[in-house]
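Q: I'm writing up a methods section and want to include an example of the input and output format. Could you take the sequence below and give the corresponding predicted structure tokens, formatted cleanly so I can copy it straight into the document?
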Amino acid sequence: MESMTNSKYFKVETVEQFKILKYININFKDNALELELLQDNAIKATDKNGEQVIFYYDYEAQKVSSQDNL
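A: Here is the clean output for your methods example:
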């Protein structure tokens, strides 16, 4: 696995991804997760143990949600 991504310098492409990244920055330590853009409203995160979760912006709820049963 590559070194963990510093989320403060991670580049996003959409407003929804920015909101997800803001959520990650508030709830996780720097460099705790490897991040990967998936869709306009989703980012996949992998921790140092290989555990993965997809964070996505839920348009109906107007908040960041997650799916961890990958």
